[in-house]
What we know:
Blueprint: H1 2-6, H2 20-45, H3 67-77, H4 81-86, H5 92-125, H6 131-156, H7 167-190, H8 202-227, H9 258-261, H10 263-291, H11 300-320, H12 325-351
Helix pairs in contact: 2-5, 2-7, 2-12, 5-6, 6-7, 7-8, 7-12, 8-10, 8-12, 10-11, 11-12
Protein name: Heme A synthase
Cofactor: heme b
GO molecular function, one term: heme A synthase activity
Amino acid sequence: MTSLQDAAPGQVSFASDRLRPVRIWLYGLAAFVLLIVVVGGITRLTESGLSITSWKPISGVIPPLNDAEWQAEFQAYQQIPQYSVVNSWMSLDDFKFIFFWEWFHRLLARALGLVFLVPFVVFLVQKRLSRELALPLFGLFILGGFQGALGWWMVTSGLTELTSVSQYRLAAHLTAACLLFVALIYVARSITPGRVIGHVSGFHMGTAALLLLLVIMQIGAGAFVAGLDAGMGYQTWPLMDGAIIPKGLFIMEPAWRNLFENAMTVQFIHRGIAYLITAYIGWLIWRRHKDGGFGGVHGWLPRIGVILLLQVCLGIATLLAGVPIGLAVGHQALAFMLAGLAIGYIADMRRVR
């Protein structure tokens, strides 16, 4: 593997690159995780996440096949607060719609395990994976399983007292998905053959790591916005409730609860982190332009800047349009892509010789 990383890009043939199928697989897994996140976003926005009230890892793959099975699922849903408080108007046909999205989300999550495990075993048999690579990859498999457990833990929060899932658990679930996504991309980039050119210092690594941290924090903050339906209020920009800093940000006691449970404060924090990331990336691009331009590994920065501008525009459009599903899901997916670019930048800087 070392010899491949030392070789120039033009000197590496597909025949000699035994890790190429592994990289394709890892990028495919990352794309699959992103698909699950998109479907999860649709599930959340259609308020479908509590439609299946039990966890059946094997038999749950098969949806209800006859009227009796559908009635049983519907009756189970009618026992939770979301139905009695919010959706008591629902007919069986209405229930089938929300059931589909939660079932599809869970189906994709189950499929991710197979899409990971089967090629992993094949690559082990083919001896494409060294011990140093196989162990971290197996760790990612464990992380994927933990993510599934987090998903069910999240669902259980809405089955007894709440009419939706806990925003705390939603944030944990989405952040764990982001960590899995960036880890897959990092490993794939780390085993890419060929030299990476450019000057890299501790300053570059530190500022890129901080950028990644900020993006992940913003994704977590977005989960709190989604969990509280905070985007459904204060749908103006740049003012919020008629002011730059609206009143009522700290009306809850104790004060810390406002950061996670006050819809106004949660949306304000989400906006604030967006402004911070925008200013920070702008500064990084200005600093890099001043220090020598964007050749080599630092070519990642302009790409990051472009995706950031798209993300800012999409976020504002999502808010002003009243959080339509298409824009909201695109906003979430683009946030993951921004995190993916940041980790790609970090991975390539680590490959500079």
